[in-house]
From TrEMBL:
Protein family per UniProt: Belongs to the ACC deaminase/D-cysteine desulfhydrase family.
Residues of the active site: S76
GO molecular function: D-cysteine desulfhydrase activity
Keyword Nucleotide-binding: no
Record PTM N6-(pyridoxal phosphate)lysine, positions in chain: K49
Keyword terms of this UniProt record: Pyridoxal phosphate
Name by which UniProt lists this protein: D-cysteine desulfhydrase
GO BP field: alpha-amino acid metabolic process
SUPFAM superfamilies, per the entry: Tryptophan synthase beta subunit-like PLP-dependent enzymes
Lineage, opening ranks: Bacteria, Bacillati, Actinomycetota, Actinomycetes, Propionibacteriales
Organism of provenance: Friedmanniella luteola
One Pfam family cited in the UniProt record for this chain: PALP
UniProt cofactor(s): pyridoxal 5'-phosphate
Residue ranges of every copy of the Tryptophan synthase beta chain-like PALP domain listed in the record: 9-298
InterPro entries linked: ACCD_DCysDesulf (IPR027278), TrpB-like_PALP (IPR001926), TrpB-like_PALP_sf (IPR036052)
Length: 314
């Protein structure tokens, strides 16, 4: 029997919900805007990473792994969901996080510890330094007789990105054809899968500053998937002072979603994605009468771990 390429970690499909009050507040028609609730997918607070982990965990189990090793920012949602997936599958988890240990574990870090993951602080090492630190840690575990499986940064690989090709098909089945799928771009796998599934012209990806070269990152994943997508629609205007920053447009966007729909976004990813949609409607890149699906990709624990979260209500 062939080994499975997916191991179920959530209940599918996630809901696709209307957001008429938010639509009107953005300047769209009431039935133009729908929210794909991938924030409800999977254990431990949920989020988009669980779709990719269904694939990478299948690879890990097929390789006989007994511990997952991955990396991320201190408030990485991917690291938290890797810890949750590991717990569910009876594997260990080692999370190599950039920076130094903060005083007190908040947000995702609190959940990482609760889920039983080992946390290793890599220092301010940059993207290449983080990859090196993961391999050092995997080597250390192997030397102890463990069988580590490295899950890439953000869980994004060409095979993991296939999970969002499936998500694209799920969205197409759930309602009328979307003209625009709005998504936050971090490590790029979610965007790559959606582009492969829907076509580049229908995916509006909002860069968060998580990688240095978003077009190259997504292009590399697409090439690995054997997809020649053509020009991507990337918005690069929502990064502000960098990935950890909470920008004014994001404060406004997070408040707007909360106060029109009771929908809570996060300051790092989904808040930037909505701020990008606000800007796209202003630019007339997205127009009333066109159908928009906004991907709520999760991240709520990151809100509770954000040092400037109080500014959302101040
Ligand atoms: C990681 C993440 C994203 C971006 O997904 P990538 O596949 O890394 O581009 C979007 N939203 C949230 C909440 C995330 O944690």
């Amino acid at each position: 029997m062939p080994l499975p390429t997916r191991i179920p970690l959530a209940t599918w499909p996630t809901p696709l919900e209307p957001a008429p009050r938010l639509a009107v507040a953005l300047g769209l028609a009431a039935d133009d805007l729908w929210v794909k609730r991938d924030d409800l997918a999977g254990p431990a607070g949920g989020g988009n990473k669980i779709r990719k982990l269904e694939r990478t965990c299948a690879e890990a189990l097929a390789a006989g792994a007994d511990v997952l090793v991955t990396s991320g920012a201190p408030q990485s949602n991917h690291a938290r969901l890797t810890a949750a997936a590991a717990a569910r599958l009876g594997l260990g988890a080692t999370l190599v996080l950039e920076g130094d240990a903060p005083d007190g574990d908040r947000g995702n870090l609190l959940l990482d510890r609760l889920l039983g993951a080992a946390v290793v602080w890599a220092g301010e090492v940059g993207a290449d330094g983080l990859v090196a630190a993961v391999h050092t840690e995997a080597g250390r575990l192997s030397a102890q007789g463990r069988r580590p499986h490295v899950v890439p940064f953000g869980g994004s690989s060409p095979s993991a990105a296939q999970a969002y090709v499936d998500a694209a098909a799920e969205i197409e089945e759930q309602g009328p054809r979307p003209d625009h799928l709005v998504v936050a771009l971090g490590s790029g796998g979610t965007t790559a899968g959606l582009v492969a599934g829907l076509g580049a012209e229908r995916v509006l990806a909002v860069h968060t500053g998580a990688v240095d070269d978003p077009a190259g990152t997504v292009g590399g994943l697409l090439a690995g998937m054997g997809v020649d997508a053509g020009p991507l629609r990337l918005r690069l205007d929502q990064v502000g002072d960098g990935y950890p920053a909470l920008t004014r447009p994001v404060v406004d966007a997070v408040r707007l979603a909360a106060r029109t729909e009771g929908l809570v976004l996060d300051p790092t990813y989904t808040g930037r994605a909505l701020a990008g949609l606000v800007a796209a409607v202003r630019d007339r890149d997205v127009r009333p009468g066109e159908r928009v699906v906004f991907l709520h990709s999760g991240g709520l624990p990151g809100l509770f771990g954000h040092p400037d979260a109080a500014r959302l209500v101040g």
